[in-house]
TrEMBL record:
Gene Ontology biological process terms from the UniProt entry: response to amino acid
SUPFAM superfamilies: Dimeric alpha+beta barrel (SSF54909), Winged helix' DNA-binding domain (SSF46785)
GO CC aspect terms: cytosol
Matches recorded under PROSITE patterns: HTH_ASNC_2 (PS50956)
Protein's UniProt name: AsnC family transcriptional regulator
Organism: Sinorhizobium alkalisoli
InterPro entries: AsnC-type_HTH_dom, Dimeric_a/b-barrel, Tscrpt_reg_AsnC-like, Tscrpt_reg_AsnC/Lrp_C, WH-like_DNA-bd_sf, WH_DNA-bd_sf
Keyword Transcription: yes
UniProtKB keywords: DNA-binding, Transcription, Transcription regulation
Length: 143
């Protein structure tokens, strides 16, 4: 995959607002509309752009209680635990990590009570040995 500097600029603009009209993007990049459309199609075809999604409003996001959950799993349980974690919609991201824990999940719930139930639910999954949660108080940088 060949990604040029203009492609990276285009990706940054699409990350801000994937619904921005092609003509507006073209003006911001100093390119023609057809060139921008061709670049977007190429980036999609080559798999650089895998899809488009919904970005939730800051107001909605601020109403959620988010936490980092560090998870220790039993030996050889990763292939069994991961699909169960993937089925939990409140888990935003799941990372394999080095160190004393095996996974870090970023979770979001509508209230402290819901977060508490979610933590219990994850802890009850067969193969999960231990969890440690830290509630996110504020986000200082979000790119």
């Amino acid at each position: 995959m060949q990604v040029t500097a203009k492609d990276r600029e285009l990706l940054a603009i699409l990350s801000e607002n994937a619904r921005m009209p092609t003509a507006t993007i073209a003006r911001r990049l100093g390119l023609s509309r057809t060139t921008v459309q061709a670049r977007i199609e190429r980036l999609e075809r080559e798999g650089v752009i895998a899809g488009y999604g919904v970005r939730l409003s800051e107001t909605y996001e601020k109403g959620l209680v988010k936490a980092h959950m560090l998870i220790t799993i039993a030996p050889r349980a990763l292939s069994r635990v991961t699909p169960e974690l993937a089925a939990i919609r409140e888990i935003r991201t799941l990372h394999s990590v080095s160190g004393s824990f095996d996974l870090i999940a970023v979770v979001a719930a509508s209230s402290i009570n819901e977060l508490d139930l979610l933590i219990d639910r994850i802890g009850e999954i067969d193969g999960v040995e231990k969890t440690l949660s830290s509630i996110i108080l504020s986000t200082r940088i979000d790119r």
